[in-house]
Amino acid sequence: MKWITRERPKIDRIACPWLIKNFVDKEAEFIYVPKEQVFEKARELNAIPYDLPGAEYTHYDNECTFDYIIKKHSITDPALLQIATIVRAADTDSFHLAPQAAGLWAISAGLSHNYHNDHEMLAIGMKMYDALYSWAKFVQSERHTWNPDLLKK
Questions:
Q1: Where are the domains of the chain?
Q2: Which pLDDT score is estimated for 119?
Q3: pLDDT of res. 151
């Protein structure tokens, strides 16, 4: 299926394609267009619009589009539920919800600054969310500590 949203993606518009491709629709294709063209192009291309007002797949109350996809497709993986909180916190400027949110926002904003091709940014963002998922699923209890006093012995 084709999915379409507004150009210059950041948090949710990178996280959602990652979620869709990995847990909803492995054959998904993502299209970015100027925001005023999303619904027109969606009809023309038979694509599902997401992450903008008026779309089914969008923000509701205090939750973002990533949350909606999780609920709509009955996804229950605890790692994904944790990532949903991080994405929501970063995407809604609610960093108090998850300590990782500020870092996710910083990396996403930096990607947007460094890459002007939306599909190139998406490809890099997909790897970023692969890493976040691996952290949430397998290694979040691992701690990285560095003690310079241990190097003196």
A1: 2-134
A2: 97
A3: 64
Q: What is the 3-state secondary structure (H, E, C) of the chain?
A: CEEEEECCCCHHHHHHHHHHHHHCCCCCEEEEECHHHHHHHHHHHCEEEECCCCCCECCECCECHHHHHHHHCCCCCHHHHHHHHHHHHHHCCCHHHCCCHHHHHHHHHHHHHHCCCHHHHHHHHHHHHHHHHHHHHHHCCCCCCCCHHHHCC
Task: Categorize the per-residue pLDDT at 144 as very low, low, confident or very high, splitting at 50, 70 and 90.
Answer: confident
Dihedral angle of Cα 74, 131, 134, 140, to the nearest 10 degrees: -110
Retrieve residue 43's tokens: 């009809």
Helix 78-91 and helix 118-134, axial crossing angle in degrees, nearest 10: 130
pLDDT score recorded for residue 142:
83
Answer whether residue 153 shows pLDDT above 80.
no
What is the distance between the alpha carbons of residues 94 and 12, in angstroms, rounded to a whole number?
Answer: 14
pTM over 0.90: yes
